[in-house]
Design brief:
By secondary structure, the protein is of the alpha+beta class. Helix content is 41%, strand content 19%. The chain binds L-tyrosinamide. L-tyrosinamide binds next to strand 1, helix 2 and helix 3.
Length: 109
Amino acid sequence: MTEREKGPAAPGRETGVATRTRPKTKKPTLYRVLLLNDDYTPMEFVVEVLVRIFNKTPEDAARIMLHVHQNGVGVCGVFTYEVAETKVAQVMDAARRAQHPLQCTMEKE
Ligand code: TYC
């Protein structure tokens, strides 16, 4: 009898290699990038940061800035670790250069 005519092996007597049924992808851990409110950074500067670094529209940027102004903290975006780290560094660098006390941090989602 050919392999094809025999049909499937009895349970426990299968030979060969198990095939992968799930795609081999791992979801990366994501990180929220947060802006913190302070009393001194100009609103316009925060909006510019959100447009330039987080690619927000001016409308979304103004909305996020006002949320942070009113609530103390707000999410600018959710990214993989290295992207989040880069965004935080870019914000902190822009704030330092402009001598504003704006703070930006990241946390695991
Ligand atoms: N509170 C600031 C002001 O009144 C504006 C501001 C908004 C600062 C958001 C920081 O993340 C911030 N000028």
